[in-house]
Design goal:
The chain has 693 residues and is an alpha+beta fold. Belongs to the class-II aminoacyl-tRNA synthetase family. Type 1 subfamily.
């Protein structure tokens, strides 16, 4: 034994290389070096420290510096002090329900502080959800000097525990809700103690500044509209689950896998590589195939608030990952699904917005929507309906607005102002702006624009000729200052989601609203758009199903024809087949789409192989579904509602990014966490991948 009872083996251990703080701590405790820790006598430790080797003394000196009292590790002491904190006796918003004189413990964030003197300060305490605030008064006195000084040392936005006494307070003159924070009236809290739970550093500037998306956490903390949207979103999800859950066993909430396989449903997919060489998962574009499998599995009905993924170009209402309210019912057709969704949406509008929505919703065919509004998701809150007028127009006018021979020519009007000059000024500014670029470069011709002005020959419609001008004036019920727009298009069946004139209609209307020339549309108009074509011409923009027929499924390749007559057309003219496909539209936004599905395996394979002319290899990607349908699958129908869009529409938001906690940018990036990130060489090796220039 050496050094007052310390063994030679211990000394040898102390003289060796000590690699971890845990070893240092254990050794220091073993010799009683740390105050208050049982072990060998402090006298022995002192003797050991003074008489052992220099390396041993150096080690023990380092061990002593690890004490939480040392400035180098003060952060550990601070953390230890926040490790335990008192539970709240109530929430800030509930303070008026307590008795004056009661002791209270509150959790929240410090707001702005006002120091009236060295001895008196007032500070706002914000509730945990930042929705309510109360006033805290701090008085410096011999008993609580340290509390008062601690309060004054803390920055705004610091999370704290406040202990105090509830006092009566005269209400301030200004009782406004400012920045979404509702003041608690009638009471205040006299401070007795305060515990800081974490520092909010002074170098983070969030007051009177625009916070970038790279600091999304601070955007959420400082912008109550984002927090309110997230609360609204959570409540809406709960209402949906409660409503659908009341249907009992006929509709079950089922989670479907996120690691799926690549199948040509219509959109580009995100692939997930695996360590099995040459194999990858695909993230699901929707739970479509799994929910059809559930219908064949004897599940009477299914719903899910599901995450979905599509690698497509970004727009205001699109995200690479998004949320759907997904639904499927067996032994059902489209009408049953539509009736259920109408009841659900009417319930949401009533409970969340206090607005009564009449049911059943208006129904409009795809052909009618495209013809009257130039869109398959028309906003019915304003007019500007489109009509055909090529039969009225002189040939020379048709030739001036475009290169097409025998085109369809359509027209709409907008009343911008009773002053024709103001209308002319507005449309000139619009056509000179970048907003008009797509319409100026339309290969089918530029729009023809006229302003109705009774002070001019033929009221400004000279190019129409006498008879046509008179008919247009009568049919459109023109008045002074009306804007009249015509546009030519090819004489062929309507396809796609909009026409150039339909897009121009929306752009001009939006510009007039921004200028304050016409009012912002109000209210909600819900409708079903039905009878879509089952197939659309293939294009280079969307991958579709990659068949060789020059056709793609308008919705997806599992959609059923609408009628017996449409089934017959599959053999003679597939391009004319109508689908039992229905979109729910609100204020010009497609909330979702659904359809009756093909439940017969022979019909499904016929669509894939003979109509779309997919290759055998691609058809095999659907072999699992074909086998499921072969096993006596019942008729079934369903729908998927874009949950992000639903929330945005209900709250009147321009973009779904405003209702998503952590949205992706226009480039599909999460600027806060910096995703996606580059793949490392080691990761590439793990998944048998290599990068190509």
């Amino acid at each position: 034994m050496l050094c007052g009872g310390i063994s030679s083996s211990a000394l040898s251990r102390a003289s060796s290389v000590w690699n971890t703080y845990a070893e240092i701590s254990r050794y220091a405790r073993s010799i009683g070096l740390v105050k208050g820790i049982p072990g060998r006598s402090r006298a022995n430790a002192k003797y050991f420290f003074q008489n052992s080797s220099s390396k041993c003394r150096q080690f023990l000196s380092s061990a002593k510096s690890l004490s939480l009292e040392g400035s180098q590790y003060a952060f550990l002491k601070n953390y230890r002090e926040t490790f335990h904190f008192s539970s709240p006796t109530l929430e800030v918003k509930d303070l008026p329900n307590s008795q004056v004189g009661d002791g209270v413990v509150l959790h929240g964030y410090l707001g702005k502080r006002s120091d009236l003197s060295k001895k008196l300060s007032f500070v706002t305490l914000l509730s945990k959800d930042l929705s309510h605030s109360t006033q805290v008064i701090s008085i410096r006195n011999p008993e609580r000097n340290h509390v008062h000084e601690r309060l004054k040392s803390l920055n705004v936005h610091t999370p704290v525990v406040i202990k105090g006494i509830l006092k009566a307070r005269q209400d301030p003159k200004d009782k406004r809700i400012i920045d979404g924070v509702k003041p608690v009236l009638g009471v205040e809290v006299e401070l007795r103690d305060i515990q800081c739970l974490n520092e909010f550093p002074s170098d983070i500037a969030i007051e009177d500044t625009i916070i970038p998306p790279q600091q999304r956490h601070l955007q959420i903390r400082t912008d109550h509209t984002i927090r309110d949207a997230l609360v609204f979103r959570a409540r809406t999800a709960a209402i949906c689950r409660e409503f659908l859950g009341r249907l009992g066993e006929s509709l079950l909430e089922v989670e479907t896998p996120l690691l799926f396989k690549s199948t040509p449903e219509g959109a580009r997919e995100f692939l997930v590589p695996t360590r099995t060489k040459g194999h990858a998962y695909a993230l699901p574009q929707s739970p479509q195939q799994y929910k059809q499998i559930l219908m064949a599995s004897g599940i009477p009905g299914y719903y899910q608030i599901a995450r979905c993924f599509r690698d497509e170009d970004q727009r205001a209402d699109r995200q690479p990952e998004f949320t759907q309210l997904d639904l499927e019912i067996s032994f059902a057709d489209g009408k049953k699904v539509m009736d259920l969704i109408e009841r659900l949406l009417a319930s949401l509008w009533q409970e969340q917005l206090g607005i009564t929505i009449d049911t059943p919703f208006q129904r409009m065919s795809y052909e009618e929507a495209m013809s009257r509004y130039g869109s398959d998701k028309p906003d019915l809150r304003f007019g500007m309906e489109i009509s055909r007028i090529e039969h009225l127009l002189p040939v020379d006018l048709i030739s001036k607005i475009g290169p097409l021979t025998d085109p369809i020519v359509e027209v709409f009007k907008l009343h911008v102002s009773e002053n024709a000059r103001e209308t002319a000024r507005f449309i000139t500014e619009f056509m000179d702006s970048s907003q008009s670029a797509p319409f100026q470069s339309n290969p089918d011709g530029q729009p023809g624009i006229f302003i109705y002005d009774p002070r001019k020959p033929l009221s400004g419609l000279q190019a129409f000729g006498f008879e046509a001008a008179e008919r247009v004036e009568e049919d459109l019920d023109l008045i002074d200052g009306d804007l009249v727009v015509i546009q030519a298009r090819k004489r062929e069946p309507l396809s796609g989601g909009s026409t150039p004139l339909g897009n121009l209609r929306l752009a001009i209307h939006k510009a007039a609203v921004v200028k304050g020339l016409i009012p912002v549309p109000e209210g909600f108009k819900l409708l079903w758009v039905t009878d879509f074509p089952l197939f659309s011409p293939a294009n280079d923009t969307d991958p579709g199903q990659g068949g060789g027929a020059g056709l793609s499924s308008t919705h997806h390749p599992f959609t059923s024809p609408a009628s017996a007559e449409d089934i017959d057309l599959l053999l003679t003219d597939p391009s004319k087949v109508k689908a039992e496909h229905y979109d729910i539209v609100v204020n010009g936004v497609e909330l979702g789409g659904g359809s009756r599905r093909i439940h017969d395996v022979k019909v499904q394979e016929f669509i894939l192989r003979d109509v779309l002319r997919m290759t055998d290899e691609r058809i095999e990607d659907f072999r699992h579904l074909l086998e499921v349908l072969r096993a006596g699958c019942p008729p079934h129908a369903g729908i998927a509602l874009g949950f992000d869009r639903l929330i945005a529409v209900m709250l009147g938001k321009e973009t779904v990014r405003d209702v998503i906690a952590f949205p992706k940018s226009g480039k599909g990036e999460d600027l806060l966490v910096k995703s996606p990130n580059k793949v490392t060489t080691e990761q590439l090796k793990t998944y048998h991948l290599e990068l190509k220039e």
